[in-house]
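User: Please work through this fold.
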Amino acid sequence: MAKNRTSAGLPTRQQILDFIASSDTPAGKREIAKAFGLSAQDKILLKALLKDMSDEGLIDVAPGRAFHKMGGLPKVTVLRITDADGDTTWAVPERWEAEHVPAPRLRVREMRGKRSALGVGDRILARTEEAGNGWIAHPMKTLARGEELMLGVLHEEGGKLWLQGVEKKERRSWPVSDAGGAEVGDLVLAEKAGRPPRITARVVERLGDPFAPRSFSLIAIHRHGIPNVFSEELLEEAERVAKQPLGEGREDLRHLPIVAIDPADARDHDDAVWATPDDDPANEGGWKAIVAIADVSFYVRPGSELDREARKRGNSVYFPDRVVPMLPEILSADVCSLKEDVDRAALACHLQVTKSGALKSWRFTRAVVRLAANIAYEDAQAIIDGTLDKPLPFRGGVGVGDSTSSEGLAPSSGPTPNPSPEGEGLLDALRPLWDCWHALNAAREKREPLDLDLPERRIVLDEKGRILSVAPRERLDAHKLIEDYMIAANVAAAKALEAKKTPVMYRIHEPPAREKLTALKEYLKTFDVEFALGQVIRPATFNRILDRVGEEEFRPQVMEQVLRTQTQAYYGPENVGHFGLALGSYAHFTSPIRRYADLLVHRALVDAYRLGPGGLTAEEAGSMDRIGQSISQLERRAMEAERETIDRYVAAYLAAHVGEVMEARITGVQNFGFFATVEGVGGDGLVAARDLGAEYFHFDEAGKRLVGEHSGEEFTLGQRIELRLVEANPVSGALRFELPDGKGSAGGPQRTGRPGKGAPKRVIHRRGRPGNIRHQGRKR
């Protein structure tokens, strides 16, 4: 929860907002401190207060560390000209990161009497001014021209070609002046051309059939500007470093039956695990465990071309049909991927776990491992449950002194292997892992992290990339097991670096802001559920709320609102803990193949433990705050791209079922209508308030519901309801619903629209292109 930090000389939140709004120059922390004459001690408190205000959504930070109102604009910023209407030119911010707030549209005010020399796509440095309900831009300097690229699909109307954008909210089509060889139905990249009153679209790249396999992810890649091509020079560097020997001094762990448990369709394998009962008398009943993570820092050195590209990408992006990797495939899917029966470089986290599941000790080594097996989650669970109906390969340990060369490797100083590893089967390797996990899980339950049951959608494609099914992903103990081992290693990495007084790139999840808690209190009041704001807010506080709700029909509504109350996690060097996991110190260590934050943690460990080349540099140590902000933004970009792509797949999947009545759940309520998602499938669609009936529907913001003025009909966040699907657009991912009896069918007698308990989740199965959509481009 945001802290109300106060001091005799510290300005209030409102005073800061007033100063930012009235300042003629960009207002950073230094300017605010100077304006209010703050002491050195007050400046420390000011930094914390500004952080609170940012988390509460009151202010945002602009380039150059200047602040401005959240949803507002910096005093001076770069704008891009997007349109012109007669004598008026319009622009939008080139950079806009305020969540859930649309980018403002600014009217460009040029010298009086001078005809506009600015065209669509031009970039300007401008001073911004809020005027009435809008914004005005005063150009200061014209910058190098940037293309205003649009992603859309060509269609024909009135004998002319038009470009329809792929955005859900895009309602306008643009006349096409140059198709560039593209045809009706093609997905294209285009730039705006011409001057008012005739702005047209000129196709610059033809991307092909928008409904072809892999096109949905291609739309997201282009729309979000995600780098998806490695240069030849970088690929050559990757080939070169991949051939280097594993290095000397590595701990030899090849004698242990270490296993990797991953999704059946995993593209890379960052982590592997092993456990055995601890023979240390000081840890009676406890366990020894190893979490082995691909040693990416050995191959990707600071300052290299690989490192610069990885930092630019920030993370891998995972789509149902492809992965856009942070690192070239020879590293991400081969040399740095932990696979069975081949030697791999690893950074090993050695853990001592007590019988109660607490971490007693930890240490980190550079090691060489040779996995006994790569196992799918479902198979690992089946082995433990005794239901596996197929034999799986299992190598077992090779033993120290195996025929594979051990030259340059250090003998293991850690745990001894399980007895006779060569003769063990998979069950014997997995059973100790499960036994140790039961202790870790008990400690987790005692810690009481936030427990929200939020099913993940899984898109299943065939070998040609066509949709087979969309359904919630099953949650097994095997998933929880790997999650708890990874959490333990992440905690150990953070605490180890703290003990070594080495910079840490923390994974930070702050408590909810008071404003959000107040909104939750008002919402819960509508269900007669009490929530006291004066208490210390912990994750368990929210768990208790859900326990009190029990299995009531409105449980999904409450769970949805609890989720919306949480803040968004991010990366940074200042530790404020991980609220959701109920942990004081937490860093991401376990996925350096796909997250740059983890690579930085690896480098810090290499440096702190003096494990050889590839450690954290002074430049990186001094730039952790800036790097953390960058990779946090890139993570949000990836999440948005992945979510949009899944929505497009879902829309394509449902396009063949337009007109059918489906079980749905309301996921958002606004004064203009409500959003709903198909149960068990997903994809948000709108039901407009104007389509609910003749009566007026009041918007109850606290209760997140629309209420009929006369009938009392309610549409509430989380409510289960039957809706008719009337539109599914795979290119934009947009869905549109109506009530089962069509527009205006609400407003009659009270009805809940909720199916009975135990109603099966709807899972639709269909292959290929939506039956009601046909591509009209060239034949292939």
Summary: The chain is about 25% helix and 25% strand. The radius of gyration is 28 Å. The first helix runs from residue 13 to 22. The longest strand covers residues 359-370.
